[in-house]
Amino acid sequence: MTDTVKHMKWWGWGNEGVGFHHEDKPGFAPFVEKAVGLDLGSATRASEPSFEDVDVPASRASEGFVRELTAIVGGEHVTTDDMVRVIHTYGKGLRDLVRIRGNQILRSPDVVVYPADEAQVQRVVDAAVAVDAVIIPFGGGSNIAGSLEPLPAETRTVVSLDLGRLREVVDIDADSGLARVQAGAQGPDLEAQLNAKGWTIGHFPDSFTHSTVGGWVATRSTGMQSDKYGDIADIARGLRVVRPGDVLVLRPLPSTSSGPSVREMILGSEGRLGVITEVTVQVHRIPEKRNIYAYFFPTWEAGVAAMQAISESDASPSITRISDARETAFTLATSKKRSGFSKFTAETALPKIMSSKGWDLDTICLSFIGYEGGVAHAKHQKKLVDAIVKKHGGMGVGEGPGLLYDQKKFDTPYLRDFLLDMGAAGDVSETAAPWSRLNQVHDAVYEAAHKAYAEIGVTGWIMSHLSHSYHSGACLYFTFAFVFQDDPLTEYDTVKSAIQQAFVDNHATISHHHGVGREHSAWLEQDISPEGVKVMTALFEGADPGAHFNPNKVVAD
């Protein structure tokens, strides 16, 4: 499958067999109707978007510039084709999907270039800077923070520099557990190449199937198993970044005291400091044993307290995740139809046991905890965690639900597309806060979302889970949904803004792992202080005085 066809499927053009099918989940339709007032039985599903209905701004790339790019990478790797340019215009956020379906494309890249190696990237960058063009690096296109779009007011030629041909594991230093990886390697291709030699990167974000190593670094990504392996800031040890005239090289050192960390400056820079072409990542041998177990807690507060206790203990699980009561209800309502003993256990025996404990079935919270390593190590980790779960009033229910979690962990984003087809919004916001503030943040976000729903006159839904634990705090990941009325983007902004403001008002960050882009930049000053923004602005302006690299992302120029 070509990259273009894969992107078409991701957009919804030609998506047979791809995505979320509610028919497999018997409780989904009544749950959605109760949660957001959307009757799937009577709702009319939107017709498949037609590219012919999209008005694409004409390319502003001059013939001479296109010829120069063609001389660098070859004619088949340079294009001003309308569909390819549209595919490279936005990421995959809800705002992006609404605009593209609503024919709201005010500015697209003028030319898309696919270099084959770092040398070609350097030549493309130098050629673009020489004609005062804008360069927007493009990995998997899965960003949901507005990090990819060219601004409508941009009058210069915009080059989308697609790293899709740079996707190889170049070398593995087995003694050090370091792998040199080209920045355009997407998650599945990278993991397959590593697995073939007995290694794993251990980094599995929701966007794993479509995102790239370079994109992970550029947005400071976090994966589902970061409790064990760390986020990309921990995993990325060395970097190669193409800048005008030369390559910024950071060797993969275990630690260094060479002044302020340039590596940290590149992490989360969203293409504003150059084009990441290679990342040296910490890799690990494939664990002998890997299990994910499911647990239930009587309340959200009990579950969060258990997660905190685990983070402070000698246990080191790979995953510590707990859903609040609302997300637990959603998970149980949308599980596949059961039969036989499985049906009896889940729908009769387990609720009976919980009731005998005095639990309110409307407040129960489902947790997934993963263990990896040698057999003895994994067994010991589970023993430590089981004791903590018991102390906090929880109960284990085995590996069965954990296997389901592993199988479906990358499917959730498709729910957003399904709801959009039905005229409803489904989106996410995530944050991180100290343990002492976590429940306060959780409750404040719920309150803010419901006030926003009341303001726009809808029945809305919000649910949450704790997805990554640290010694000092954790990440909270919120999913919200509502049925659009007359002005989808204004309504979406009302809800999204309320949630983001609740984050900073309650001492949480504006984003844990999705990045800033343009979607979250309005809250950056409240997050890192006005002086922090001044320092960041000075970095971008000093490193790129001509504003050639993805301008107006993270902070406005």
TrEMBL record:
Cross-referenced InterPro entries: Alkyl-DHAP_Synthase, FAD-bd_oxidored_4_C, FAD-bd_PCMH, FAD-bd_PCMH-like_sf, FAD-bd_PCMH_sub1, FAD-bd_PCMH_sub2, FAD-linked_Oxase-like_C, Oxid_FAD_bind_N
Name of one Pfam family that matches: FAD_binding_4
Source superkingdom: Bacteria
Matching Gene3D superfamilies: 3.30.300.330, 3.30.465.10, 3.30.70.3450, Uridine Diphospho-n-acetylenolpyruvylglucosamine Reductase, domain 2
PROSITE patterns, alphabetized: FAD_PCMH (PS51387)
Catalytic residues identified in the record: Y477 (proton donor/acceptor)
Domain FAD-binding PCMH-type positions: 105-286
Family, similarity comment: Belongs to the FAD-binding oxidoreductase/transferase type 4 family.
Phylogenetic placement of the source organism: Bacteria, Bacillati, Actinomycetota, Actinomycetes, Micrococcales
Site residues, Important for enzyme activity: R321
Organism: Sanguibacter keddieii (strain ATCC 51767 / DSM 10542 / NCFB 3025 / ST-74)
BP GO annotations: lipid biosynthetic process
Protein name: FAD/FMN-dependent dehydrogenase
Residue sites binding substrate per the record: R416
Residues annotated for FAD binding in this entry: D206, S207, F208, T209, H210, S211, T212, E270, G271, R272, L273, G274, V275, I276
Coiled coil: none
This protein's UniProt keywords: FAD, Flavoprotein, Oxidoreductase
Cofactor: FAD
GO MF annotations, alphabetized: alkylglycerone-phosphate synthase activity; FAD binding; oxidoreductase activity
